[in-house]
Amino acid sequence: MSSLDKETVRRIAYLSRINVSEEGLSELAGDLTRILDFVEELQEVDVEGCEPLTSVADLTLPLRKDEVTDGNIQQKVLSNAPMTDAGCFVVPKVVE
Amino acid sequence: MTDLTKLTLAEARDGLAKGDYTSVELTEAHLKSMDAHRNLNAYITETPEKAMEMAKASDAKRAKGDAGKMEGLPIAVKDLFCTEGVQTTAASHILEGFKPEYESTVTSNLFGNGAVMLGKANLDEFAMGSSNTSSYYGNVVNPWKDKSGKDLVPGGSSGGSAAAVAADMALAATGTDTGGSIRQPASYCGIVGMKPTYGRCSRWGIVAFASSLDQAGPMTKTVRDAAIMLGSMAGHDAKDSTSAPIAVPDFEAALSGDIRGMKIGIPKEYRVDGMPEEISKLWDEGVAMLRDAGAEVVDVTLPHTKYALGTYYIVAPAEASSNLARYDGLRYGQRVMDEGDSLDDMYMKSRAAGFGKEVQRRIMIGTYVLSAGYYDAYYNKALKVRRRIYQDFEGAFGQVDAILTPTAPSAAFAIGENEGDPVKMYLNDVFTVPASLADRPLSRRTAAGSTADRQAV
Fold it and tell me: Which InterPro entries does its entry note (chain A) (predicted)?
């Protein structure tokens, strides 16, 4: 059905937020096309009247009281961050 | 004195209870074995100091008459389980140096029952692979060799766990299985691997790959050991809303060995073209063994088997692309950022540098099949086919108590084989993936024998 071109791969890479070089795009286009070809055979399966199966866990998601169950662990939350300042995560400038 | 690393989990448990040796002695013996087998690269992080501390504490606990189900038994932990204060990498560069501030539920259960941690076992990056060659921390070598002495892959993704148990570097190990990651490496290394039914073990604190499929399980030397260890890992957990709210039975007590009158199904679709003779021969021998033990063997059909791999390689990457969005270079893990970079630049550089090739491919395939215009054709279609596969198993289990299949279409292959073409590697999961998608607790493999090459199957 689909052979992915370089521009499509560029778009997917951006949606995935992964930097890919120009040469990388061509290689990926080949790899991803191979994978899509491989899954193509699903199209021949008759799924008329079939409900999608998202999970085999035959459960209704349990509810609990809307209350605070933990907290006051600022140091723990920040302990693995690459950059922090004054008890906050530091991000690049996002507003001019 | 007997070599303490050769013991099974059950033997070691009983020996400790009788006072034949201490947990400190047992742990020291395994740490020595880890030194001797470092060439296999089964561990990413060894934790000898923590192990000795835990062993001493365990001996003290036992002296007070307070021994748990896994008391004093040294094990390896797949480096996908978050362990408090101990680096947890998922075999990825992006998590290098990450030290969780919390303990996963499964390891917390095991340690609560007295288990001693020897270290964090190697795996394929983010558990994506069937050969343990995608680890950022180097590939794992199978302790078994082929006839010519060539190095083999241990299978994956739980390759480090399997190699550690097979080479007596741990009495047992935890693994996780999404599409075969416990069963296939257990097969390749000649040990027992058990993927429990989805929901049996809590997923809380396990680095997520594909949440509707991920499940933790034991990797051990014997079936009895698997029963003991699973009993300690399992249980309902309020922190995982998909964990099953049902009581954990005594798995070990259930090992009666009596299978008289049980109906065992043999799915004809698993006789694939080009299956090596040694695999089909072992399968036939397995059938004969069950029949001799009094089971009734019947043919069953799982007509959608050939679509399981395609379904899996849409569903799993889709879920992975969402789960792995959390690696953003902000809250934990590696960050790559240059002067003047925007937030997007930082995301894109960090993720490009942090994720390996296979992980990047799967994130992108997952992103594509979930993207506008393709969602119905790929993702939704795959979920519907997954329903068909589920119905196949429902039908089969209407007739039989269990199904017997080979784990993989070949024995362990050489390191470097099946690389270069992602699809070729995926084909290895052909027998393990269907049961993952339909999730029936049939997915146990036991040591069946060895091939002509004296490799484990």
Answer: Asp/Glu-ADT_sf_sub_c, GatC
What CATH number corresponds to the domain at position B200? 3.90.1300.10
| SS3 state of residue A85 | strand
Give the catalytic positions of B in this structure. Answer: 78, 157, 181
Scan for tokens 């399992």, then name that residue: B234
A12/B contact by beta carbon, under 8 A: yes
Would residue B397 count as lying in a domain? no
Q: Determine which of A16, A60, A69 to mutate to test the interface with B (most B C-beta atoms within 10 Å).
A: A16
- Average pLDDT on B35-54 reads 98
Lowest mean pLDDT among B128-142, B262-276, B309-323: B262-276
Q: Is the pLDDT of residue B445 over 80?
A: no
Q: Quote the domain boundaries for residue A28.
A: 6-44
ipTM value greater than 0.90: yes
Q: Judge whether A49 lies within some domain.
A: no
The pLDDT assigned to A2 comes to 65
CATH number of the domain at A35, please. 1.10.20
Task: List, as ranges, residues 194-213 from B with C-beta within 8 Å of A.
Answer: 198-199, 212
Which of A13, A34, A52 is opposite residue B364, by nearest beta carbon?
A: A13
- Is B108 inside any structural domain? yes
Cβ under 8 Å to B: A residues 44-83: 45, 47, 50-57, 59, 61-62, 64, 73, 76-77, 79-83
Q: Looking at the domain assignment, is residue B247 inside a domain? A: no
Domain assignment present for residue A84? The answer is: no
- Evaluate the CA torsion angle B269, B275, B278, B279 in order and state its sign: negative
Is A69 a member of any domain? no
Does residue B370 carry a pLDDT above 50?
yes
Using the structure block, give the residue that is written with the tokens 């399997």. Answer: B162
Q: pLDDT-based confidence at B444, cuts 50/70/90?
A: very low
Give me the domain span that covers residue B202.
Answer: 4-233
Hey, what amino acid is at A74? Q
Residues B214-239: tens digit of each pLDDT = 999 999 999 999 999 999 999 999 99
Distance from CA of B219 to the nearest CA of A (A): 23
Mean pLDDT of chain B, nearest integer: 93
Task: Domain count for chain B, please give it.
Answer: 1
> Residue B375: inside a domain, yes or no?
no
Average model confidence (pLDDT) across chain A: 92
Contact B387 A45 (CB under 8 A): no
Residue at A59 is within a domain: no
